[in-house]
Design a protein that fits this description.
With about 450 residues, the protein is an alpha/beta fold. The protein has 4 domains: about 120 residues, Response regulator (Rossmann fold), CATH 3.40.50; about 160 residues, P-loop containing nucleotide triphosphate hydrolases (Rossmann fold); about 80 residues, Orthogonal Bundle (Helicase, Ruva Protein, domain 3), CATH 1.10.8; about 50 residues, Orthogonal Bundle (Arc Repressor Mutant, subunit A), CATH 1.10.10.60. About 45% of the residues lie in helices and about 15% in strands. The strands form 4 sheets. A 5-stranded parallel sheet has the order 2-1-3-4-5, with helices on both faces. A 5-stranded parallel sheet has the order 7-10-13-6-14. β1, α1 and β2 form a beta-alpha-beta unit. α2 runs parallel beside α3. The radius of gyration is 28 Å and the shape is elongated.
Length: about 450
């Protein structure tokens, strides 16, 4: 996806303003012009510009002062200084103060094209570096091997068909079923695959910082806003943004998100200047959004905007035939890390893995296999190695109770109690291990009356 650059030319020479505008329009950019510094700053505060051409010698304000104000308002906006040969020293000084480059009069259309393309590319790289830095810091929580189940075949068929479109996709499913991975799969097979894929974990954001995280803020817009922040939509420009656990959003943020979808622009907190964004939106939730709409907790208009193409991921208990394929993948992955070669599992272990209902889905299965590999005394996994934090096999969640199968609620209750005990009652760590948010854990503790 290519964004159309908007460029501001501030120069008191009408001929230069007109010639620069013509060059930019031929390149497919849009251009606005100002005859002096006052008019230029007024335009800059009103609109969003990808770059500025600034003459240092203006009739009203000093060019250096204008540069400083632009830097303060939008530090990532590249500024190209226009100067005469007699004031090259001033251009060098301007670059020390933050200007990106300079053009000495007279300059040719080709020189203007080359230098403008260079600074726009530099700006693009700035945002890509923010994205790449976050990707490097981000550790994937789990993997998903595509199995042979009919349920997953249906999901992947939809993914293949929807990837090449621009449609908004709503991915639903229980925690740990692989919603983010499906979103990445859609992005990686889309025309936007070479642009950023930006993840927003709505469940991990503090409500008061939600809007700042999504849309950014300008320096000084609120207490603690010590510098301009680029929102996630801005970083994702040209690519895809994935809003995970979107049901957590307040009605106020939902209204703002709806405006972004409709207008395709954002406004940073503390600014009145809209910024155009070209972003595909993918969303996910483990809640029933239609129920939340009926309860007045989720906007109906936003629900329909997000669920243009709904994709439901099956739970692991709905695709049992994939369990052993996933186990094999995780055994190889964690066996390599632990420098152990576990070639096979006993029939008793396979039976235990297949009989368990996996309330935490693939994420829980991965955690279980990683733990079993680490705890194994050699190159074989014992049944006891599967049990959580050293619980004896006689009380294992995998075993039958009195010759009868346990129901899912009993297993979940026992599992939560086990992890809570192992974490000395620390609910945040317990929620992280169980791969659910703290709010969900508290609801389950209340439901099961766990002390």
């Amino acid at each position: 996806m290519t964004e159309k650059a908007n460029i501001l030319v501030i120069d008191d020479d009408e001929a230069i303003r007109d010639s620069c505008s013509q060059v930019f329009k031929k390149e497919g950019y849009s251009a606005k012009t100002a005859k002096d510094g006052t008019e230029g700053l007024k335009l800059f505060k009103k609109e969003f510009f990808h770059a500025v051409l600034l003459d240092l010698k203006l009739p009203d304000l000093d060019g250096m002062e204008i540069l400083s104000r632009i830097e303060e308002e939008n530090p990532e906006t590249p500024v190209i200084i226009i100067t005469g040969f007699a004031t090259i020293e001033s251009a060098v000084e301007a670059m020390k103060r933050g200007a990106s480059d300079y053009l000495a009069k007279p300059f040719s259309p080709e020189q203007l094209r080359v230098i403008t393309k260079k600074v726009l590319e530099s700006r693009k790289n700035f945002f890509e570096n923010i994205y790449l830095r976050e990707e490097l810091e981000k550790k994937s929580e789990f993997d998903m091997v595509i199995g042979k189940s009919m349920e997953m075949d249906k999901v992947l068929d939809i993914v293949r068909r929807v990837s090449s479109s621009e449609s908004t996709v709503l991915i639903t499913g229980e925690s740990g079923t692989g919603k983010e991975l499906i979103a990445r799969e859609i992005h990686n097979h889309s025309p936007r695959k070479n642009a950023p894929f930006v993840v927003v974990d709505c469940g991990a954001l503090v409500e008061t910082l939600f809007e700042s995280e999504l849309f950014g803020h300008v320096k000084g817009s609120f207490t603690g806003a010590y510098e301009t922040k680029h929102g996630r939509f801005e970083v994702a420009n040209g690519g895809t943004i994935f809003l995970d656990e979107i049901s957590i959003m307040s009605l106020n943020i939902q209204a703002n998100l709806l405006r972004v979808i409709q207008e395709r622009e954002i406004t940073r907190i503390g600014s009145t200047k809209p910024i155009k964004v070209d972003v595909r939106i993918l969303a996910a939730t483990n809640e029933n959004l239609a129920d939340l709409v009926r309860k007045g907790k989720f906007r109906e208009d936003l629900f329909y905007r997000l669920s243009v193409v709904p994709v439901r991921l099956p739970s692991l208990r709905e695709r049992k035939e994939d369990i052993l394929l996933l186990v094999e993948h995780f055994l190889q992955k964690y066996g390599r890390r632990a420098r152990k070669k576990i070639n096979s599992l006993s029939s008793a272990i396979k039976k235990a893995l297949m009989e368990y209902d996996w309330p935490g889905n693939i994420r829980e299965l991965e955690n279980t296999i990683e733990r079993a590999v680490v705890l194994s005394k050699g190159d074989e996994i014992e049944l006891e190695d599967l049990v959580y934090h050293g619980i004896s096999s006689s009380s294992s969640l995998f075993h039958l109770a009195g010759g009868k199968y346990k129901n899912l609620e009993d297993i979940e209750k026992e599992y939560i109690k086990t992890v809570l005990k192992a974490q000395n009652g620390n609910k945040s760590r317990t929620a992280k291990i169980l791969s659910i948010d703290r709010k969900t854990l508290m609801a389950k503790i209340k439901k099961y009356k766990i002390q």
